[in-house]
Write a structure and sequence with these properties.
Elements lengths: L5 H4 L5 H6 L7 E2 L4 E4 L6 E4 L21 E4 L10 E14 L14 E2 L3 H11 L14 E6 L2 E12 L2 E9 L8 H15 L3 E7 L5 H6 L2 E5 L2 E7 L3
Parallel strand pairs: 3-4, 9-10
Antiparallel strand pairs: 1-2, 2-3, 4-12, 5-10, 5-11, 5-12, 6-7, 7-8, 8-9
Amino acid sequence: MFNMTTDDLSVLDNPLWHSLTTIHKQYCTGEGKIRVVLPEIFPYFAIENPAAEDQLGRIIPWLKAGDHLSLLGAIPARIPEALKLDYKYEIFQMIADRNELLPESLDAAIERIEDSDEVLAIKTDVDPHYYQPDTFKLGRFFGIRDHNKLVAVAGERIKLPGFTEISSVCTYPEYRGRGYATQLITHLHNLNLKEGYIPFLHLTKDNPSIRLYEKLGFRMRSSPSICSFSLEAT
């Protein structure tokens, strides 16, 4: 087990904020209590205290008609009149629960993917949600090929001091059942542990991969919300 207290983990209640004000500060705009991720990275924003009624309205000047920006975390019960809540749903946040390296399989060769277009292509085909052309810049991506075709991929997204989010895990349907996702997640898990970062991840509550992550030593930590906002029509 990691020798960490609840206070140490509290940054994961608002991980994007702590990422955009530290390691990933070059990938956003904003100041004070708000940060807005560059649109080519992914359509999100973060505020210092999402549950505070006086902070959510800070996104209003950053929105134009037709814009939709998402927030990860809690929101206040009362939403400013100028904002429209497009949708809200709860997800799971899981965190690696053991401070030990996982055994790595050599069944398939894993390689660092340097071409962002390759990752964009597989994400577009398999799972296009929350991935934009420059999401690739946020971290390292690794993949498995069948000859020259990239058939499975996983990478890093939100990164803050002490923690790295594993994200963009996907495999073409015809290549599933071969353990490729397990290999890639294990590789990223071990790489981050060696560098002093605890892996964590987010996934929808109906994601069938939950059991896989539990088998790899991840545990449920919280159930945050993803909320999308736009300007209320006038």
